[in-house]
Specification:
It is a single chain. By secondary structure, this protein is α+β, with helices and mostly antiparallel strands. The protein has 2 domains: 3-146, 2,3-Dihydroxybiphenyl 1,2-Dioxygenase, domain 1 (Roll), CATH 3.10.180; 159-214, no CATH class. It has 4 helices and 12 strands. Strands 2-3-4-1-5-8-7-6 form an 8-stranded mixed β-sheet. A 4-stranded mixed β-sheet has the order 10-9-11-12. The longest helix has 12 residues, at 14-25. It starts with a strand and ends in a 9-residue tail after the last strand.
Length: 223
């Protein structure tokens, strides 16, 4: 079984991403760190045991990495969107057999090792860095046995209530999720509406009430 590990907010700068989260959630995500050799850095916010929100942005004043940055941060269309502000890009699911799961669905991308400080993990993302299916087909992550990065995170009382996917072909998306062994009750629904999709929304419960984060970009006709 694969379960939700974290959701991803992309931003032009970390300050913009953290400002965005603070406005919506009432909490400024604490600092994370630098992804070695990948040209990105992040802040992280706990969303319950084993789950968190990542704000990720290009690391300033560094040499461009050898391959495109994660989550489309080097893509021209994504960079144009970021001129209007940060947005929910995609989600990442945790597996204990990443090679097996990535082989089942090659579009999730090759498996590689990443690190942030002393923390190291394996991740599968597309070679071009772009989220697949409008961010509805998640990246895969595998943490070393016994490692849970959320154990060290401060708890502000915010929880992930669920993710809702909007896709022009819900049955096809469900089949791809099944191929990844994705079974998490927080995946609420795959919905289809004319001119709405593909895009992702995350529902968060905060001390001040329920908040929805959206990655809506427009849409394509449903099937």
């Amino acid at each position: 079984m694969s379960v939700i590990d974290h959701i991803v907010i992309v931003a032009g700068t970390l300050a913009e991403g953290c400002d965005h989260c603070e406005r919506l959630l009432g909490v400024r995500p604490p600092a994370g760190g630098v992804h070695a050799g990948r040209g990105t850095h992040n802040h992280l916010l706990l969303l319950g045991e084993g789950t968190y929100l990542e704000v990720i942005a290009p690391q300033p004043d560094v040499t461009a990495p050898a391959r495109p940055r994660l989550f489309g941060l080097d893509d021209a269309a994504v960079r144009r969107r970021l001129q209007d502000g940060p947005f929910l890009s995609t989600f990442v699911v945790r597996t204990d057999a990443i090679e097996r799961d990535a082989a089942r669905l090659p579009e999730v991308g090759p498996v590689e090792t990443m690190s942030r400080g002393a923390l190291q993990w394996r991740i599968a993302t597309p070679a071009d860095g772009l989220p697949v299916e409008g961010g509805l087909l998640p990246s895969l992550i595998e943490w070393p046995v016994g490692i849970d990065p959320t154990r060290a995170m401060q708890d502000f009382g915010i929880r992930l209530a669920g993710l809702r996917a909007h896709h022009p072909d819900p049955s096809a998306l469900r089949a791809k999720w099944a191929a990844l062994g994705l079974a998490d009750p927080r995946l609420l629904a795959v919905e289809c509406a004319e001119d709405a999709g593909p895009w992702l929304e995350a529902i968060l419960d905060t001390p001040s009430g329920r908040v929805t984060l959206s990655g809506r970009t427009g849409g394509v006709p449903c099937r």
